[in-house]
Design goal:
The protein is α+β, with helices and mostly antiparallel strands. The protein contains 17 helices and nine strands. The chain has one domain: Orthogonal Bundle (Cytochrome p450), CATH 1.10.630.10. Belongs to the cytochrome P450 family.
Length: 512
């Protein structure tokens, strides 16, 4: 019998490949994909995403609807832009969409996907989530650290008062960043790591730039993540910045761990965990953990604590005060509530917030109109699934655009207007169960530290309004206040807010 020739083998391979391609093509044709703009070869729909992708996708959703499919390079992405779609993605199909895409930011900035934000769905992530919920942010632990928040919230207006004596406009973001960092630094790291001095590892302005870079680079669309042929070229320069940022973060975190390990070694048998880093180091030595917590894992989780504990409160409070300065009537109404409930002889405390209905409404309205994370951190479909009758293939990126869903005209009257009164009598909270308002996300991937962030935001805003009267600088008209934003993982103001302040409480309340 004559052996098959190479030509015969080649024909057989060609026929096989052709059948596979035809089968794949027919399968794709049978898929009922959501509507969306026609993609270009190689770049997909990147040509339609401007400098603010959440706004670009918001406009596209007006044409294609709240369930939309776009192409990020070669990768399909499901975009949910309504309250209903947020619920479907984050609750109904929460488990299917529980994974994360592997991006350059996750690789370089978070120790190869070792933090809770970018780690893949599986045993390591589930363990990290349990650590955050049961150990670091349990109600008991947060209560034990209340004295820290009280001390820092009392120190916060004193620093602003001292600045006001210079008769210069106050750079609000600087003071908000100091408040947020001091709170989380003392709770997580055991002390104020950014007090200026010879022993300081990093100056406050340098640290703030580092945190800003963390959120910017974790949120940008790095073309190499989505277009394979660009993966090794870094055409936007983002990967170079990520690597540089990683070195700065690692230097800071090494310093933190060295100090904590040194104290542990010195105190030996008398050592007890005093802060969140101590808890993580203690868990790292626990042989019963399902997945061993390595040093890089400890560093990545500390990074989560620091970044998450500073950004949400700083960004939200700056947006809140910007909106209030555009509408003095809202400030007047808030101050009236504060004088009635609190009086003018003391500062607002955490326990008072439940009685400050209008203050809480202002916070919710700020979170609605200016979500800290306008597009929730991307999820990834772990398997094929149907959403509203459409086929969503395994490997699809899932983007929940809260910038759109929180402007849903079917839910909110006058959705583009800053109007806190809409939340008076409306039973909507921010704990992830009401999909009309999702500042901290929802489902398995919801921010585990939301309760701490909310405490600092509500108490901080109350005392900003309780302690001072506010005025825009240089006779600026409210309508001229710049409200542009910067897109990243978070959504801060492009031009930081400055304002003149004067004390409205007795001077003795501003003294140490």
């Amino acid at each position: 019998m004559e052996a098959p020739t190479w030509a015969a083998y080649a024909v057989a391979w060609l026929v096989t490949i052709t059948l596979v391609l035809i089968s794949s093509h027919l399968r794709r044709r049978k898929l009922n994909l959501p509507p969306g703009p026609k993609p270009w070869p190689i770049i997909g729909n990147f040509n339609l995403l401007g400098s603010h992708p959440h706004r670009s996708l918001h406009e596209l959703s007006k044409k294609y609807g709240p369930v939309m499919m776009v192409r990020l390079g070669s990768v399909p992405a499901l975009v949910g832009s309504s309250v209903e779609m947020a619920k479907l993605c984050l609750k109904t199909h929460d488990l299917v969409f529980a994974d994360r895409p592997k991006t350059a930011a996750g690789k370089y900035v978070t120790y190869n996907y070792s933090n809770i934000t970018w780690s893949q769905y599986g045993p390591y992530w589930r363990q990290a989530r349990r650590i955050f919920l049961m150990e670091l942010f349990s109600a008991k632990r947060l209560e034990s650290y209340e004295y820290i928040r009280v001390e820092e919230l009392n120190s916060f207006p004193r620093g602003m008062y001292e600045h006001s004596l210079t008769c210069k406009a106050i750079p609000l973001k600087d003071h908000l960043s100091t408040l947020s960092m001091n709170v989380i630094s003392r709770m997580a790291l055991g002390k104020r790591y950014l007090d200026e001095g010879e022993s300081s590892i990093m100056m406050p302005d340098e640290f703030q730039k580092m945190i800003d870079e963390v959120f910017l680079l974790n949120g940008v669309f790095n073309l190499g993540d989505w277009i394979p042929c660009l993966k090794y070229f870094d055409v936007q320069g983002y990967v170079t910045r990520m690597k540089s940022l990683a070195k700065k973060l690692d230097r800071f975190l090494d310093h933190v761990l060295d100090e904590h390990n040194s104290r542990r070694e010195k105190e030996k048998q008398n050592w007890v965990a005093k802060d969140m880093v101590d808890v993580l180091l203690e868990l790292a030595g626990d042989p019963t953990l399902e997945v061993k917590l390595e040093t890089i894992g400890v560093k990545a989780l500390i990074e989560d604590l620091i970044a998450g504990g500073t950004e949400s409160s700083t960004v939200t409070l700056e947006w809140a005060m910007s909106e209030l300065l555009k509408q003095p009537r809202i400030i007047a109404k808030a101050v009236e509530e504060l004088d009635s409930v609190i009086g003018k002889e003391r500062w607002v405390q955490e326990k008072d917030i439940q009685n400050l209905t209008y203050i809480r409404a202002i916070v919710k309205e700020t979170m609605r109109l200016h979500p800290v994370v306008p597009m929730l951190v991307p999820r990834l479909a772990r398997e094929d699934v149907q959403v509203k009758g459409y086929d969503i293939p395994k490997g699809t990126i899932v983007l929940v655009n809260t910038f759109s869903s929180q402007r849903d005209p079917n839910v909110y009257e006058r959705p583009e207007e800053f109007w806190p009164e809409r939340f008076i009598g409306m039973n909507i909270d921010v704990k992830g169960q009401d999909f009309e308002l999702l500042p901290f996300g929802s489902g398995r991937r919801m921010c585990p530290g939301y309760s701490l962030g909310l405490k600092v935001i509500e108490s901080g805003l109350a005392n900003l309004l309780h302690g001072f009267t506010w005025k825009l600088p240089n006779n600026m008209r409210p309508e001229d206040l710049n409200m542009e934003e910067i897109f990243g993982l978070s959504n801060p103001k492009k031009i930081p807010l400055t304002a003149f302040i004067e004390p409205r409480l007795d001077y003795h309340l501003f003294k140490p």
